[in-house]
Specification:
CATH superfamily of one domain: FAD/NAD(P)-binding domain
Strand content: 15-25%
Number of strands: 19
Largest sheet: 7 strands, mixed
Cofactor: FAD
InterPro entries: FAD/NAD-bd_sf, GMC_OxRdtase, GMC_OxRdtase_N, GMC_OxRtase_C
Protein name: Dehydrogenase
CATH architecture of one domain: 3-Layer(bba) Sandwich
Bound molecules: flavin-adenine dinucleotide
Distance between the termini: 30 Å
Keywords: FAD, Flavoprotein, Oxidoreductase, Plasmid
Structural class: alpha/beta
Order of helices and strands: EHEHEEEEHHEHEEEEHEEEHHEEEHEEH
CATH topology of one domain: FAD/NAD(P)-binding domain
Helix content: 10-25%
Number of helices: 10
GO molecular function: flavin adenine dinucleotide binding; oxidoreductase activity, acting on CH-OH group of donors
Length: 511
Amino acid sequence: MAEEKYDFIIIGTGAGGGTLLHKLAPTGKRILVLERGGFLPREKENWDTVQVFQKDRYHTDEEWKDHKGRSFHPGTGYWVGGNTKVYGAALFRLREKDFGLVEHSGGVSPAWPISYKELEPYYTQAEKLYGVRGRRQMDRTEPKASEEYPFGPIKHEPRIQEIHNLLEKKGYNPFYIPLGVKLHDDMLESSKCIRCDTCDGFPCLVHAKSDADVDCVRPNMTMQNVELRTHAKVECLVTDESGKRVETVVYSKDGEKHAVKGNTVVISCGAVNSAALLLASANDKHPDGLANSSGMVGRNFMKHNNGAILGISSKPNPTVFQKTMAVNDFYWGDDEFKYPMGHVQLLGKVNKDMLAADAPAFAPGLVLDKMASHSVDWWITGEDLPDPENRVTLKDGKIHLHYTDNNLKGFDRLMKKWCDILKEIECADYIVPHSLYFRKKIPLQAVGHQCGTARFGEDPKTSVLDKNCRTHDVENLYVVDGSFFPSSGAVNPSLTIMANALRVGEHLAKS
Ligand SMILES: Cc1cc2nc3c(=O)[nH]c(=O)nc-3n(C[C@H](O)[C@H](O)[C@H](O)COP(=O)(O)OP(=O)(O)OC[C@H]3O[C@@H](n4cnc5c(N)ncnc54)[C@H](O)[C@@H]3O)c2cc1C
């Protein structure tokens, strides 16, 4: 195994790793990026619902196991850009209170070691980097921002505007989803985004979605100090004799093992794979896994309580680009329930092929088509709480994921509440639960919002990373993907991962 030496080695190119590369590339330091996937191919199948949703074309065919040893296919993909290649690009800031300790009906959501104010400048940078479109001051739970969104909001289509108006009339506060989509509504002829119906959950064939590949990796990969190796899966990290520094990164490519050295090594493989990599790197000095003196590596895995519903009414819904509106009126609870409930947002428009995989429960063909053409489709998120027993382990080199639902009371109330509201405003004669979006038939598959497996904190006994996301135990090892979350809030996680990567990047660039 030939050895080469770099200033920084970044492992993984998703929301965390890709954004970090963007921050570090201008330093001129020698950077090696190792990514287990390749570039996601641009092909007609990018926008083919059957390929994407029924045949899982862009998901890994790897098998993970649940706590009973049953195999399942996780809803995750390995590409340059990571899961941002298929995400819905809803780019939210956590709420200010999410950074403190919050009492939930199901327990406590712990405080972060940094405040919202400390992360705020990096949220602003991340919104600029990913060109977020939105409008401030419509969402009452929105934290104070130092700047406007870089671009105005993506407008609702007529049916959604109608629902927006109906909700407002009832006293609710619908708002525009902050979106990382390169859409210029007023100049569609020159807009990169063509406002189509294959965005949320699909790769973007015309590269009009702001993702870590298009916005961070590609613009930097031709720089002389940056080297990207794709199809390079990191297998383990080897420390020096003291166990205090990572000396060598071992990866496999084209069936061969390679070793590289880096002054600083940053893991960003996604919360599950980063934990797996630390566990796979156990040695004499770190018998329970690298940087795991706390025993917390792999624990406190979170993925949100998620639900999707179709509100079907007699009125057709010809909306094409549907993911434009959200509601946070119940984020912190309501008059009858004093604990947090969660967040409501529109999904990308559901079509008959997305419903088809659930066909035994419904009538096929025309009926599915009719349902899809009359439905308005919603995504509900509640916070799940960190539980040390919800965890990633490795057995015989295979990922095992143990997860038991928690904190469901507020989430269930929100689901019911939202269904009642849709009926009240006559936007749903009936409601159909829709389980396809994250393929929730086997609930564990739904790992899109994975986080928490190497949380940051002040105390090395209860956390894996310090405030700067450096491992407490190994002085040149950092983690910058969703693993660092001590709690998950109830809005989509990516903007927080990106903002934090910029924050950690600044620290690394200075040091
Ligand atoms: C269908 C879907 C829709 C979503 N919609 C939204 C949304 O609208 N808004 C939002 O905020 N979030 C959304 N998410 C979640 C979002 O995509 C993730 O939160 C985010 O991508 C996580 O970033 P990350 O850096 O932690 O991991 P990832 O983005 O998953 O990146 C991990 C990277 O590490 C690489 N890797 C893994 N293991 C190794 C290894 N051993 N060696 C080398 N490389 C490795 C992977 O290939 C990948 O490139 C969605 C997710 C899905 C699946």
